[in-house]
Design brief:
With 113 residues, the protein is mainly alpha-helical. The protein has one domain. Helix content is 66%, strand content 0%. It has helices at residues 2-24, 31-41, 48-62, 78-91, 97-108. α1 (2-24) crosses α3, α2 crosses α3 and α3 runs antiparallel to α4 (78-91). The longest helix is centred in the first third of the chain and has 23 residues, at 2-24. It is found in: Endomembrane system. One of its GO terms (cellular component) is endomembrane system. Residues 51-85 form the DUF1232 domain. Keywords: Membrane, Transmembrane, Transmembrane helix.
Length: 113
């Protein structure tokens, strides 16, 4: 059952992450962290337990309805930011310069936004 849930979360993140980030990147202060977390989660060198933790946090980010729906002005992404911040604190040693550099390049790309 847990493997099915993890597999479902991974599929959801792969499908919904980029459209979600493209839609909200300019309005959320943690866009770079989210994109760096994505790159870390799908980096084959990242340990499996870290990947699973990041994918869970990113799945929460892309869910259309959560504790505070994302369409609520100013507060909609507060819960997403909290979940991601807590997750990044847990796995910070695995999120490296390569992931952060890739996130910065992606967000700076004219074609991205």
């Amino acid at each position: 059952m847990a493997a099915d849930s993890a597999s479902s979360d991974e599929a959801r993140v792969k499908r919904d992450f980029w459209p979600t980030v493209k839609r909200v990147a300019r309005s959320i202060p943690f866009a770079e962290d989210a994109v760096a977390a994505y790159y870390c989660a799908f980096d084959r060198e990242t340990p499996t337990h870290v990947r699973a933790t990041l994918i869970g946090a990113l799945a929460y980010f892309v869910l259309p309805l959560d504790a505070l729906p994302d369409f609520v002005p100013l507060m909609g992404f507060a819960d997403d930011a909290s979940v991601l911040a807590a997750t990044l604190a847990l796995v910070r040693t695995h999120l490296n310069d390569r992931h952060r550099d890739a996130a910065r390049r992606t967000l700076a790309d004219k074609e991205f936004g």
